[in-house]
């Protein structure tokens, strides 16, 4: 039950610190990621030369973050394939391909069919799933469960942060097995994972009211854009999807670098644009590029709402609003940055008088192709 919350979505957004903590719990020992479910698979992880992550919707955006984690830590080429696109061509897969599927429900028909197809083609399959004993994990060689708890609201929130967390664990684990992550790097990343739930709680505590107020002011907005680079890009896509799903407002997420290749034509005075700003501590260059994107849209009259780490003052002269997230490692930032976007979508839908748990035309689990 909702336990005093106005909606399941509000409850599930608030449960995100636990969703992350429970997904990490029991999978860390002495500065190392230890995933008991993957015992005995070291040879498989050493032998693969390619990873394909397949999923739909929100889970496919977690997959994009997972791609970056697997490439950075495990040094294996990784690609994301929408499950419903995967098998209607002739993908190059074989016994050295690991197909990782991501599904909250574990019953999404598109994703299930992609997993079956990959297996028939001889690939190894690993499922990241939130539902014990669901069909997709049963059809896979291995499973890493997310422990977000039951997700009732149609719009996925806590399952998403748990999916990213599981993919970070997987990337680190495979990186250690393959020798591409040092013990020191592993210990630092593990410390980041352990600190993450507290940081999610901090974003909720410090930004909820601010973001809800912003959404209240914007209840008549007809279109919202979201920009991000690197792992901020999938978060921009997720921010747009949440808004479309529950507030029925036109929204689009872009890779910030694409702006000048077309989407900047959409910018007119008053157009609200969320920009996910990566930490300057990780890459001064990446940060500078995003700040210059902000200047470009600001110069054309955009209303810029920035999500930036605490202490990043470079964004202040160009932002109409600044939402702060705590300092975190580059690959960990998405778990923090998505939270204000979830709150924004929820508050905007609520301001429009909509039922955030049961958006029109959508079902929680899509069991048809
Ligand atoms: C978005 C949403 C959907 C699901 C997608 C996959 O809020 O809930 O986009 O993420 O239908 O569902 P699962 O993860 O159950 O396979």
UniProtKB/TrEMBL annotation:
Chain ranges of the SIS domain: 41-180, 214-359
UniProt KW Ribonucleoprotein keyword: no
Top-level enzyme category: transferase
Keyword terms: Aminotransferase, Cytoplasm, Glutamine amidotransferase, Repeat, Transferase
Function per UniProt: Catalyzes the first step in hexosamine metabolism, converting fructose-6P into glucosamine-6P using glutamine as a nitrogen source.
Annotated catalytic residues: 364
Protein name stated in the entry: Glutamine--fructose-6-phosphate aminotransferase [isomerizing]
């Amino acid at each position: 039950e909702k336990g005093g919350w106005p909606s399941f979505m509000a409850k599930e957004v608030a449960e995100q610190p636990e969703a992350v903590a429970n997904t990490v719990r029991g999978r860390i020992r002495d500065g190392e990621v230890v995933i008991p479910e993957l015992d005995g698979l070291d040879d498989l992880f050493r032998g693969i030369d390619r990873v394909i992550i397949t999923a739909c919707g929100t889970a496919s955006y977690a997959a994009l973050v997972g791609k970056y984690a697997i490439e950075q830590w495990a040094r294996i080429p990784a690609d994301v394939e929408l499950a419903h696109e995967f098998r209607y061509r002739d993908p190059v897969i074989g016994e050295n391909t690991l197909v990782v599927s991501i599904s909250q429900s574990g019953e999404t028909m598109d994703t299930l069919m992609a997993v079956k197809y990959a297996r028939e083609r001889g690939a190894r399959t690993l499922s990241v799933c939130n539902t014990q004993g669901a069909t997709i994990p049963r059809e896979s060689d291995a499973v890493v469960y997310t422990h977000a708890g039951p997700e009732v609201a149609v719009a996925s929130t806590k399952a998403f942060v748990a999916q990213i967390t599981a993919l970070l664990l997987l990337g680190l684990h495979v990186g250690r097995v393959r020798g591409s992550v040092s013990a020191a790097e592993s210990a630092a990343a593990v410390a980041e994972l352990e600190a993450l739930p507290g940081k999610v709680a901090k974003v909720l505590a410090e930004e909820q009211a601010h973001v809800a107020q912003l959404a209240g002011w914007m209840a008549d907005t007809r279109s919202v854009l979201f920009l991000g680079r690197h792992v901020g890009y999938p978060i921009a896509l997720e921010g747009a999807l949440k808004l479309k799903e529950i507030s029925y407002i036109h929204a689009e997420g872009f890779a910030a670098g694409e702006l000048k290749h077309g989407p900047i034509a959409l910018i007119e005075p008053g157009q609200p644009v969320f920009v996910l700003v990566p930490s300057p501590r990780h890459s001064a260059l990446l940060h500078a590029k995003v700040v210059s994107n902000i200047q470009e849209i600001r110069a054309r009259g955009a209303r810029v709402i920035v999500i930036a780490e605490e202490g990043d003052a470079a964004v202040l002269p160009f932002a109409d609003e600044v939402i702060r997230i705590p300092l975190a490692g580059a690959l960990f930032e998405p778990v923090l940055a998505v939270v204000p976007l979830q709150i924004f979508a929820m508050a905007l839908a609520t301001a429009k008088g909509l039922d955030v748990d049961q958006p029109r035309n959508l079902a929680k689990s899509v069991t048809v192709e």
